[in-house]
Amino acid sequence: MAEESCLSASLERRDYPFAEQSRQSSVTAVLNYCKSKILNPYLRVLSVVGLRPLISNQLESCFCFQFVNSVYTVQLIVLLILGYLLQYMACFRRDRGFCYKLVNNPYLVQIEDVKQIYEQICHAPLLFSFIIPSVLHLIGYVHAVLVIRHSDDDQLPVLMERVFLSSNGQSSQRKLVRTLWTFVTLTGIWMTLSLITIVCMMANGTINFKWLENMPEGVTVGLKILLVVCILWHDVVQASIISNYCLQTQLLTTYLQCLQEKLLQQPVQPLEWIRHIETFKKMLRFVNNELAPSVCIFTFINLACATSGILWFFDYDNVDKETVPIGGISTLNVILWLLLALAPFVQASRLSNECDILRNAGQEVRTRPFVHQDTPRHDLDSILLYTASLKLRAKLFSIPITGRYLCLFFMFVGIVILVLGQCHYFTLN
């Protein structure tokens, strides 16, 4: 028996390097799968938008690369500013389209003493329709660029790799890849529908650019094309930033689910598990304090556009009585702004709900004697006390977002809409 025991120990020592090598190769395979299927393609998308360096060298920093990245970022910001200016010149509002009205010009010569010449002027308020939304949009983009490109912790790659390593099996990893690509696909669909609404609004009626009324036709057509490109770029910027927030909250939600599953279904070392939760808290803090502000700025703009569009759609604008909704395009435009504004709240509430479930994980561990029967009782008590003390929430506008608050808000809005409709404030005649 002693010889067999020695032989077994010798074989274990001899097989240990192969087991360790197999484990390392498995980790490498998972990381390569993560990078090839989702991480590298998505990082390239963020680089095109300017949220990450266009050219990067992980080994050493190069002045040429930094110069190219800086020039590219400046060009993107100039394109944004040019879009703001062209929107004002064309009197184009994102909540309803082109806002012109015909005003009698007494300085122009009468034709045949019967018909008077009218001129098209913009009646959209300069401060509230163009300056404030443009400044907020630019601040949101610059803040997101500074946070994502100059943060000490490159959170997205680290978080994505941690989630893939924590997932259980290839099926879970493939499901995670499909889920993440779903966010990217929905973002692309939103931008496509937004482009359709912009083109349809531009095709409806004539467009005059302020200060350039007498320019040749070719210049006007070029300005119209440039206006479409700039507006599309505005949508690409904010849709990418909001989708990045939604994707990271989805990763955090999945990461927390993996940690809970690991705790409930297999024996774990309490200190190691708590260390993972502390890492999760650090990543959640980064999302709440660093990523959320830019998302809140864009959400503020989107909610304002959606609300203004709804009020205009039901003819509650005291001045804009001449701009007429364009069939289903105006309705689609308002729906798109609402969807983009509500997406971060839905994802934040899902993450907060998972954090609430985590608080009950310690109590559930105590009710599973077969899984943790070899774990010392004081270790289980420490997990119970630790989870019960957790107060984790996803925050927007520095307010914890939970599902119950969202349901209460939607119920309140629904009651208000129903009551106003019953009191004949909303009519669709």
List keywords for this structure.
globular; two-stranded antiparallel ribbon; 429 residues; mainly alpha; 73% helix; two-stranded antiparallel sheet; single chain; 11 helices
N-to-C CA distance: 94 Å
> How many E strands?
6
Q: Which strand order do you get reading across the main beta sheet?
A: 1-2
Radius of gyration, in Å, reads 28 Å
Helix/strand-derived category reads: mainly alpha
Main pleated-sheet profile: 2 strands, antiparallel
What is the averaged pLDDT score? Answer: 83
Low-pLDDT residue spans: 1-19, 108-118
Domain count, please report it: 1
The H/E string reads: HHEEEEHHHHHHHHEEH
Q: Report the portion of residues in β strands.
A: under 5%
The gross shape turns out to be: globular
Helix fraction, binned, reads over 70%
Instruction: Give me the number of helical elements.
Output: 11
Keywords: Membrane, Transmembrane, Transmembrane helix
Organism: Tribolium castaneum
Transmembrane segments: 67-86, 180-205, 291-314, 326-346, 405-427
Protein name: Gustatory receptor
Overview of this protein structure:
The protein is mainly alpha-helical. The chain has one domain (25-422). The chain has 11 helices and 6 strands. The protein has helices at residues 2-49, 63-90, 126-150, 155-166, 169-203, 217-265, 270-313, 327-359, 361-366, 377-388, 403-422, and strands at 92-93, 97-98, 100-104, 118-122, 395-396, 399-400. The strands form 3 sheets. It has a two-stranded antiparallel ribbon with strand order 1-2. Strands 3-4 form a two-stranded antiparallel sheet. A hairpin with a 3-residue loop joins strand 1 (92-93) and strand 2. The longest helix is centred in the middle third of the chain and has 49 residues, at 217-265. The termini are far apart. The model is unreliable at 1-19 and 108-118 (pLDDT under 50).
